[in-house]
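Protocol step 4 of 5: obtain the predicted structure for the target chain.
Materials: sequence only (see below). No template structures provided, no constraints applied. The aim of this step is simply to have a reference model before the mutagenesis design in step 5. Sequence pasted as it appears in the construct record:
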Amino acid sequence: MTAIELVVLDMAGTTVRDDGVVEQAFQRAAERTGVADRMPWPEALQYVRDTMGMSKIDVFTHLAAGDVAAATAATAAFEGAYAEIIAEQGAEEIPGAADAIRALRDAGLSVVLTTGFAPVTRDALIDALGWGDLVDLALSPIDAGRGRPAPDLVLTALLRTGASSVQAVAVAGDTASDVETGRRAGAGFVAGVLSGAHDRAALAGADAVLDSVVDLPAVLAERGLVRSVLAARTP
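Step 4 output (structure tokens):
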């Protein structure tokens, strides 16, 4: 097995607590733009839940029946609403996430955060958490070309960090699209986590389904993919 050099982690639901913020922001965006008016509200909300982790412009393009202008306006409204909620409520990490990231980096691995959010929202979250120096890089779909479940975010992380191969990359996230993007990229290890949007059945395509990203360093160590000191460093 190839040793892991790079770990690519999702943000909301994986390293950052969501607590329904995405759904709240979607509701505000829908109310402000009418982007979901063509379908019953429960159907629109379920689609948002099913597509958690995907690029928001792609989600809104579907809801707007392919109307790119309407989807663009709704995406902007969503990003604005998300920023409002973060300003109102603050942001919290998944308990232990920062320590897990530090353990990975202390073991010599690069760590990249990825998200379906636009850079302005991504950076607002990172600033709210005080994570500016915690990771090597943070990427949004606009930085990579396409959002999940395309492999672009993972492959861009590999290119930007200089990892030697896709087999040297581990991917972890809380949604089916996180798992699929890892698979499409050819990542050497793909983990689903149960701290966010999707359940164990939805994450079944992963190499491992973990309770939390906190478990990832120890699992990588147990499988011989990183040096074993990680197990001791993880809380």
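Step 4 remarks: The longest helix spans residues 68-89. The beta strands are 6-10, 110-114, 137-139, 169-173, 189-193, 208-210.
Proceed to step 5.
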